[in-house]
Amino acid sequence: MLGTIVLQSPKKSTHLFLLFHGVNATPESLHPIATMLARSYLHAAIVLVQAPYASDFGQGYQWFSVQGVTEQNRTQRVEMAMPAFVETVRNWQKKTGVNAEQTTLIGFSQGAIMSLSSTQMVEDVLAARIVALSGRFATLPKKGVDQTQIHFIHGDQDNVIDHRISRIAHEALLARGVMTTYDLIPHLAHSVDQTAIMSLFQRLSDGK
């Protein structure tokens, strides 16, 4: 068991990238993205975080169970998992000596759900940027996020989390004046391909 992977941690980090995998997966699943980040951001700390609980499905890890998950009970499950998620982000900020303004959260699927939902469930700002890969909010966002950019990257063939859910959230955030983008990747299912990665790095570059 590898656990959380610290891919890069300079003595004096200028930025912190925290990557959160999906349910039933491990940090290793996001290693290709982390490797590219390391080449592009030489002075950034890059950490692939392992979710705290073993998956209900016998492989990988999870922040919350998806067995029997519905639109009605998802929010409660995310809320129960949120304190551990927030503690994880703040602990890595403390370890690397960076603040929220220097932090980017990149999440895939359940990792994106936790990252996005933190903006609705936590009063303090956790990160300056959130990139959601094939993700969604637990429920439609009800408040704006003044100090956080939110970027959605989603495949148009995703049959796990419908891309229209993230588009509606994107539009709701736009209406509240949030800096947000939405990139729909053609022919992509519930996964990350090279086009999605290119979009991710373009959004990171836009925010420099």
From TrEMBL:
Gene3D superfamilies: alpha/beta hydrolase (3.40.50.1820)
Keywords: Hydrolase
Superkingdom of the organism of origin: Bacteria
InterPro entries cross-referenced by the UniProt entry: AB_hydrolase_fold, LYPA1-2/EST-like, PLipase/COase/thioEstase
Domain Phospholipase/carboxylesterase/thioesterase, first and last residues per copy: 6-201
Homology family: Belongs to the AB hydrolase superfamily. AB hydrolase 2 family.
NCBIfam families, per the entry: PRK11460.1
Name of the protein in its database record: Esterase
Species annotation: Marinomonas pontica
Organism lineage string: Bacteria, Pseudomonadati, Pseudomonadota, Gammaproteobacteria, Oceanospirillales
